[in-house]
Each structure stands twice: as structure tokens, then as C-alpha cells.
Amino acid sequence: MPRLSVFPKCYMDALCVTRTMTLFEWIDLAATLGVDGVEMYPGFFESFEPAYLARVAAHLERAGLQAPMMCASPDFTQPDAEARRAEVERERRMIEVTAALGGRYCRVLSGQRRDEVSRADGVRWTVECIESVLDTAESRGVVLNMENHYKDGYWRHPEFAQALDVFLEVIGRIDSPWFGVNYDPSNAIVAGDDPLAVLAAVKERVVTMHASDRYLTSGTTFDLKQQDGSVGYARNLKHGVIGKGLNDYDAIFSTLRAQGFDGWVSIEDGENGMDELRESVAFLRAKIAQHF
Known about the structure:
The chain is α/β, with parallel strands linked by helices.
């Protein structure tokens, strides 16, 4: 049966920018939600030194939580080859950190969608970079999971492989048991795609899932696809309590169940606080029990 993890949308800046919350404090809060794990992000960590990581692992154990996935955001579409090599090395480090915390999955992305980067170059660079870290993934027992992504919250431009055809081209070129898909139905909505059509296209390769719900306060999904050069998410894009937005979780979970999916479902929700997170946990617990 799938297990539930949680990602702190409501505390990202506190954890990563202002540092007014520590990772240990977030773990303690997450332990009150009735989930099985917490999804990590590189910006949460004070350092990647072994002693600090050992403290994090011990704190997770005391809280009764796992750290199944690292939500890494490599930017492999940079035109400068040296910059891409640096991103590869950072991804290797995140794979190692994932393994040090007992995790099984480390996210990979393509990178930012820059005007000066052609589709052919972006696809080629992404595939080359991902393939270059597969040896580290295998040696650490970590599966790389590429997400049908919209935009890292601290990026300037949207995802290069946001469009489904580009995403499918990238994953279609990588054949490894250490590589799979992190399916996010809300990101499909943002891309202007049908989340169920996206799932149908990738269902055989899904190893993990992000659960959230999205709604627009103004405009259309087309507006979100524009590369406006602003840092972070579009202002008219909002997360909501899971089960109250645009995603059909009955259809999603029935499809995944038919595929034999039993991986982690990580909640990316709660921009408005812990109460919304608790509602989302309760909704997903009920749906998982219903379908699995």
C-alpha cells in the first residue's frame, strides 16, 4: 500500500531563506500529521557534513518518520558546459545525502526553459546529465525520479520539459532500472494538459507521486506557460486542500492501483498552514484505503 510523505509548502522560506525554522522543528511538526515520512529539499539543510546528517537521521527516527525522497532541482539546461558539470556534481551529492538518510528516491529535472536553448540541445543536455549520475544512483541504491514539473519555487524560468511531448522525449531516451517518473497531476494542469492523459502516458514508469490540488485565482492555465522572467511561481496559481481542487483522485488512484503502484505519495500542499495539511492527509488516507 502506498505510504504518505509531506512537503512543507507553507514553511519553504522559513526553512530555506530566512532560516527562522530549523529542519528539526519541521520534522517535529510533521510528526503530528499522521504521515509516514517527510520529503526533503536541499535548502532545508544547514550542511551536508556526515555529523549533521547523522543528527537529522536520528531526529527522524525519534519522530517515527522516514525521508523517502529528496526534492532536488538540478538545472541541466544551462548553455555553459562547466555550469552543467557543476549541476551534475550537485545532483550526485543529493543522491548521497538521500542515501545517508535512508531514502530511496532523488528527484531529477531538466532545467529552466531559457530562450537561447533549443529543444534539441535542452533534451540532449538533460539526457546526458541524467545518464552521467546513474552510476552514483545505482551504487547508493537510489532511484532517480523525473517529475513532470512546472517550476522550482526559486527558479526564474519554468521547466524546460514542462510540455508533455518534451518530457516524454527525455524519459523515452533513458532506459535504466534506476530511473523512473515522479507523477504530479497538478503540474499537468499547469502545463495545460489533462492529468489523466499524462498519467496514461507515463503510468508504467511511475515510482513516486506528488499529491496536491491547484486552482487559479485569475486568468487561465495558458498564462502560466508564459516565460515572464519572474522568480518563483505565478501569482495566480494557488495550492488548495487536496480533494477540493481540479484533480480526480479516484481516477488517479484507480489507474495507479491497476499498475501495481505501491510507492510513496508525497503531499505538496498546505501553503496556508498546518490545518490544510491535516485535511489533505485525512483525504488521502481515506482515498488510499479505498483504492488500495
